[in-house]
Every structure is written in structure tokens, then in C-alpha cells.
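User: Fold this, then the next.

Assistant: Folding the first:
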Amino acid sequence: MGNQSFRQSMGWLHTWAGILPGWLLFTIFLFGTAAFFQQEISGWMRPELRGQTVSSTALRAASILLTAKAPDADRWIITLPSDRGGEPLIATWKSGIGNAASSGKAILDPTSGREIAVRDTRGGWFLYRFHFELRYLPHWLAEILVCAAALAMLVAIVSGIVIHKRIFADFFTLRFGKGQRSWLDAHNVTAILALPFHLMITYTGLVTLLFTLMPWAISAQFPDRGSYFQAAYPPGPVRNPTGQRIASLSLNKAVSRARSLLDGFAPARIVVERPGDLASIVQLWPSPTQIGGASDALYLDGGTGKVMAIPAVPGIAMASRSVMVDLHAGRFSGAVVRWLYFLSGVGGTVMVASGLVLWTVKRRAKLLDQNRPHFGLRLVERLNVGMITGSCAGIAVFFLSNRLLPFDMAKRAEWEINCLFIAWGAVLVWTLARPVKRAWIEALAACASLYALVPVVNDLTTTRGLFPSLMAQDWIFAGFDLVMLVTAAGCAFTAWKLTIHKPKDTPRRTARELMEAAA
């Protein structure tokens, strides 16, 4: 195969590897990009929370509350927010099994330790989980679809690198108002600008789904996946209850003990087995704040604080996978790196969207009568509008519903999510019934309006609007509202550019040259 035919083959592969899973890839990139700020989004969606990091006062209050409400429980579970906040301190207790099981839960302010009422929401956690769980689908099917899309993305990236003759020149080339040429420029610039990020996030994303992608290593050695996890992550020490009561190790002492033993330890969850019993055990599970850090628990004696088991040092394979998963999620990153992740993710989202639009623009340019495309092309064009703008509108409605749904509404968190998909479906149906240019303009205008409404509704329904937040240097709330306004401005600007755009008749020869340049 000559060099020319090889590049043409790579061009064909790049096109179809990108276009077939294109709508799914756009959804994964869009929600995954938002998830880089999932804690900050969760914080905005819980305006009742004032504190961010857990104080010793709050841990002491949790100990007192659990001792008072559930002294004889089988287990206490204390879930702590990370240093980025967004979550309350949650104290849970459980006793018994089966029909005799009982449990309770208290939500505490992470700074003061006071019991507080917080609106029911899944916050940024939902955006994170949706980018690989794809709500309403069986878990196994969602994993297979996401794996297939990620594999196609990796093929599209590698083949895209091969077919590019002028990667350096394309980095500086972005021409507006040139029709198909402009879409190609936008696709190239967003792809090249964050090319290392695209390669890293796609490959490490595949690593996170390793056991779905390549299950044979487990099936060849273990009877089922559960047996593998039992061997790879063996359970910690177990004790039978003695019935002899002792003073429990305080939560503050347990955390201090863990920090003295493990560098940089930050607790994400504390589990106290058989609290107050001589056989009590305290488990301290780490927060993923260090790249490649330990994920196993530290086990302490529940009375004396004596170490019973420390996190095992992972082997090379396990450590490599841990580093790649951490690279993908970016939870270790500080503010600057997190913004770089976010902006690169925005670039990837635009890259996929511009590729989808470019595919339809190129097909329309090939038609003898561009004003009368066939049914298949008309359908794909409108589905592009509905999937791209509908998902964006849905996220805005997700935020708006957080402020507008009644505080004590039953299944409130579920209805926030339902509102997202109702809005997404409504935009999709609307765009299917409209001429494609009008569909783009109207859907983008709707997105601009919805995102502009978010800070307005936030200001009307809470005391943490944009200006009060700026005055109080509450950067999470101020930053969130500013991002909403920037997004609204971007959608409005794009809708305005489309409104004033007058397409020009493109000579057949020039269109062919453009297609050859794109190949």
C-alpha cells in the first residue's frame, strides 16, 4: 500500500471511528468535563452548607451524637467531605440484619458540627457518574457502550494524527465565516490544542474500565469476578463481639493516629465496628487526594488505638492502574491543574461537536442540490442539534430545578435528574420539527436563556447570589455563577453569528479541494 492510499485509509477510519459513537462521545466529554468540578458543583447545589473542611469540633459532635442515639449499634459510619467541600458530614448507624435491621442518619455541618437540613440532591456526583453509567441503561450495557466509544475515540485520535500533514500550522489556523473550512479549522484547533490531554484522558478512561474491556485475565484464574476482588482486596481484621463495654476511641484521636502513621492521610470515611465493645475496630478509609495513593483502610483497635492492619503496598500492576485512574479523575489536582483539565475537556467537547457538524456539512456540499438533502442527512443534522444543544440545556435545567423544586419534595434528587432529561428530550423533539438552521439558532438561544437564568434564580432563592458572594469572597458560588454567564454569552454569540450568516454558493471544484484537504 502506497503512502497516499494509507493516509486515505486512515482518513476513512478517522471519520467513521469518530462519527459512529459521536453523540455518545459528546455526552461523555460534556458530563465528564463538568465532573472535574463535581465537589464545587455539589457545594453550589447545597447552599445550606457553609463549611467546607471537617473540623475537630464537628468530629467531636459526631461522636457525641452517635453515642447518644446509637450506643449499641453494630456499626457507625461517618462520611467526611474532602477539602474541596460540597458534602456535609454524615453520621450513620446500623444494627441487625434482615427484617430485624434498623438504621439512622444525621447530617452535620462539617465546621460547626450542628445538625442541619440540607436539600436532597446528588449534585456534581450525578454528572460524574452519568459520564460512564449512562442513566436508565443496565450497568453492564452502559459499560460496554462506553468502552466501545472510548476505543473508537482512541482510534480516531491516532488516525487523526497520521492524516494530518501540518499539525503545527493547523495549531495557528482558525478562519471564521468560511463555511466548511471554518468547521474543519475548529475541529483541528481544538484537537491539536489539547492533544496530550485527549490521549491521556482516553487511554486512562479505558484503564478504568479494564475489567469490562479485557475480562479474560480474571476468568482464566478465578471462578467469578467476586473471587478476584476478594483476592485482590482481602478483607481486614474481624473480631467477634465480647459484650464487655469500654470507652470508645474518639474520632479525633483515630484521625490523628492515622495522620501520624500515613503521610498526607485525609479521611473520607470512618467505620466503627461494634462501638463501645472490647472487640471494637475502627476503619479509616483515605480520600484520593494523592496520585497513586493508598486506597485501602487503616485498622485500629476501637479502644486503645493500637494498629491492627495498615494499607498494603500495591504491586507494580495495581500501582500502575491506580496512577492511571487518578490521572483520569484528576482528584489529586490543585485549582490550576483542575482548570487546565476543565479547559482541555471543553476543547475535547468542542472537537467532537465540530466533527459531528463537519461530517454533515461535507455531505451536504457533495449534493447536486444542497437545498434539498435526502432524508438521512436531514435526520442526522437535526439529531446533531438535539443531542448537542439538548444535553447542554438539560444541565442548565438540572441546576435551575435545584433551586426551584420544593425543599421537602419527595424524591427531590431524582426529580432534579428527571428535569434534566425532560429538558433534553424536549429540545430534541423541537429541533426534529424545525429547519436545521432555525433549530440551531432557537436551541442555542434557549441554552443562552437557561444559563443566564441560573445566577438570577440563585440570587432570588438564596442569600448567596453573585454580588453577595463576590463581596464575601465566596469564590465557589461567585465562580459558578460567572461560569454560567460565560456559557450563556457563548451560546448567545453563536446563535447571533448563525443568524447573520449568509451562506455562499461554493464552486464544485473548491468543495472538492476542501474535502481533499480534510482527508
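Now the next one, as you asked:
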Amino acid sequence: MRMKLNGRHTNNLLTIPNWSKGAFAVWYRNAICFRYSILVSVFWIVFEPLIYLLAIGYGLGFFIGEVDGTPYVKFFFPALLISSGMFVSFLEGSYGGFSKLTTQKTYQVILLAPIEPAEIVLGEILWATTKGFLSSSVVAAVGATQGLVETWLVLPALFVAALLCWVSSSFGLLLTSYAKTYDWFIYAQSGFMIPMSLFCGTYFPLEHLPPFIQNLTYLLPLTHAVIATRALLTGEMPSIIFLNIGILFAVGFLLSNWATHRLTRQIFH
């Protein structure tokens, strides 16, 4: 079901998004702009996760040795691949989206073209997802050169990364629809995203957490992405992976529709 907003359409929470050409035009506009900031972006989306690989995977991993019979760098790498894309997509959707909505007035200018507000939001979600996926792909490529990717199952692992990037970009743009200042994103980043990255099996097995906190982590999308990616990169495909992927898809669907529903009104007004 769709509603009209002064002649323009907006999605409800359970509506399948209308991926018309306007959304892809917004994505293409962002891709063109990306060319002018690509050097800065390379440091952010490529070098930063590689520094984590060196410092945590190899540096700290030297003193840890193995986790459940797996060298620590191989234990840590799947989580790094996933979380690097997650952060890039979240920051692009939140800080990037808020700047375009408020200070740069980008969305208001795009409305002068025959593009619906919902298409702008979907295009932004697609772009932030693409940027995060690019980061995960580069990390996977570097891992392959270091012997950390030894199976073709890296391809479905990258699909899992794309799903998590979709969830994160939608969450970032949802926050944009509620935010009054940039400080709102600091609360979300320090109070939710960073703790999630620490307690979802990223740096150590979930089994070492107290049972109550361990159960709470299964409510977070990163936990399911890490479980699925770690299994795939070890050459395994247990049936639980399909549940992990289903949960990521459901969360991404709801968040993207919620963000589209909310931000459409913000853009129009």
C-alpha cells in the first residue's frame, strides 16, 4: 500500500520499495561525486580496515595464538571483512545523508527533477550500501593475497556483507530522519555501533560472554553476519546460515522501508 504526499508517493513499512529509474539516477549522481573524493575515501574505506588487520589480526594475534584451533588472524578476518563495510555504510547513511538533507540541501535540488522523494531515499540507501560493499570487497581481496581467503565461498560471504551494508545504510538514513544535529550520530555510534562491533563475536567467541549478554547479541544483525561469514570462509555451509541470512534480510527490509517512510516526509517538507 502506498500513500500520496501532495501528489508524490511515499512507502509504508510493509510495502515493497519501487526501484524505478529515479533511485538509480540518484545512485549514479553519488557515484560521479565520489570520483572527486576518491583519495580521501580510499584512506577511510580501504586503509583503515587494513590497519586493523595488521594491528589486531597479526599484532595481537601473535600473542593470542589460536582460537578453537584456528589461528587468531583467520578467526578475526571474517569479522573485519563484515564490520568494515558495516561502518562505512552507516557513516555514509548518517553523516552523509544528514549533510545532504540540511547543510547542502542536495535532496531539495534533486526534487526539481522528475524524481520522487522515496526514490531519493532508495538511491541513497543503494549508494551507502555500495560504498560499504566496496570496503568489504577490498578487504576480501587483500585477505586473498595473504592466504586468509581459500575458498570460493567468499562469494556468498560477500553477499552476506552486502546484506549487512544494506541494514547499516538503512539504519543510518533512518537516524537522519530523526536527527536534529550531528550529535545524534555520535550517540548512535558510541552507544550502539561500536559496542555492537565489540560484543558480536568480532574479537572473541560469543561463548566467553555471560549467558544473558550472549543471548542479547543474537538480537543484533552483526552477530548473524559474523556467524555466517566465519563459517563460509572456513569452507563450511551449515544450515544455520540460511537463518542468519533470513534475519539480515528481514531487518534490512524493515529498516529501509522505515527510513524511506520517514525521510520522504523530511525531504518533502
